[in-house]
Amino acid sequence: MAWDFSTEPEFQQKLDWMTAFVREEIRPLETLELTWPQLLTAIAPLQQQVKAQQLWAAHLDPELGGQGYGQVKLGLMHEILGSSPLGPIVFGCQAPDSGNAEILAAVGTDEQKRRWLDPLLAGEKYSAFALTEPDNAGADPTNLQTTAVRDGDDWVLDGDKWFISNASTADFVIVVAVTDPDAERHRRASQFIVPIDAPGLEVVRDIASMENPSPRENTYGSHCEVTLRDVRVGADALLGNSGDGFLIAQKRLGPGRIHHCMRWIGQANRAFDMMCERATYRFAHGSVLGEKQTVRNWIADSAAEMQALRLMTLQAAWVIDTQGTKAARKEIAMIKYFGAKILHDVIDRAVQTHGSLGYSSDLPLDFMYRAARAARLYDGPDEVHRDTVAKLILRGYEAPTDRIPTEHVPTRRRAAQERYAALFDEILASV
């Protein structure tokens, strides 16, 4: 087993370019309240620069227009992009489009790729992924109620979805629906490509949330309520085989969580920079904040926790690259809940360091803080991931056959006395 913490000089140059590009070209756009059409116009020339640097849609294989980077390199990239909510879309690797592109690339037919994947990769179309439902726990998607019923050569979809990210700006939606309610629980559902203008599909509203209490219609980053009423699609809308819905979904979840965590590190680092800067000049009770033990503790703890999360996440990415997603299941689940906590804690300390300024909207910390709360829910709540980690760890242990703890000292002492009896006899004889 080889461990290598180095980055090739050529790739490091790309990371350095990305760092400056995000800071100088992308972050300024955050301060403008752009509509979706305005945002697309503003980022178009930036996307061309990214393509010129051969960094566009880097998560995909070269034959699909990507770079074929493994998860470690993608993780390092997402750490930089995550410092801005607009970073991923400028680089063509934003959720949910990146995951949808991976699905289409993996199981899409040639015609599905031509109609949906190619324009998605080119930045000409955008998409949404409709899984979550208002009346079912997102942590257990096997309880889905949205149905897809066969009618001749067509499928007819009915159901309610919500918190469907970017549905109000999407050109098509990948909908997860039950096709065989009597099948084994992980074989009940399938996935369908549904155009956003399909009759019977309605984007009801942009849902107000902690992250965005007063959402504006038709803006990037929305979370929407979507209804499907007798939505008819052809047989060519089915992704993969009937009953493969959950199997297909797994293709996007593992790597997606790596990208989530690395983006969280980028956000936490941005909050950390604001906290440290504040500590150098804010004067209170006789000295600047950077001379206060509590603030120094916050800085030290934040630095250590971010470093721990970074190494854990890159190690999980390394396992995926070398052994596959399934082998990294424990590592992925661990960084998911640990990363959500670190993101929240670092931003919270930065807010506290800034006082009323941090609480105001004059800094991005208020939005970052509200958005960070959702990290404990994305891709499954923390509690589910903790449970997964514990179950996987416990598989490596067995109850002692005699019900006596392995480290029970009296039992170990008796065993040691028996094992070394001859040695003790020699020692006693030599005295």
Structure summary, number of beta strands: 10
| Unreliable stretches covering 5 or more consecutive residues | none
Query: Rg to the nearest angstrom?
Result: 26 Å
The end-to-end distance, rounded to whole angstroms, is: 49 Å
The overall pLDDT average reads 92
The CATH homologous superfamily of the largest domain is named Butyryl-CoA Dehydrogenase, subunit A, domain 3
Strand content: 5-15%
Structure report:
By secondary structure, this protein is of the alpha+beta class. It has 3 domains: 9-122, Acyl-CoA dehydrogenase/oxidase, N-terminal domain (Butyryl-Coa Dehydrogenase, subunit A, domain 1, Orthogonal Bundle); 127-239, Butyryl-CoA Dehydrogenase, subunit A, domain 2 (Beta Barrel); 246-395, Butyryl-CoA Dehydrogenase, subunit A, domain 3 (Up-down Bundle), CATH 1.20.140.10. It has 14 helices and 10 strands. The protein has helices at 9-26, 36-52, 71-81, 87-90, 97-107, 110-121, 245-281, 293-323, 329-354, 356-359, 365-373, 382-394, 409-419, 421-430, and strands at 127-130, 147-151, 154-165, 172-178, 189-195, 201-206, 223-234, 238-239, 283-284, 287-288. Strands 1-4-5-8 form a 4-stranded mixed beta sheet, covered by helices on one side. The chain has a 4-stranded antiparallel beta sheet with strand order 2-3-7-6, with no helix packed on it. α1 packs parallel to α3 (71-81). The model has no long low-confidence stretch (mean pLDDT 92). Homodimer. It comes from Rhodococcus ruber BKS 20-38. Belongs to the acyl-CoA dehydrogenase family. Residues 128-207 form the Acyl-CoA oxidase/dehydrogenase middle domain. This is Acyl-CoA dehydrogenase domain-containing protein.
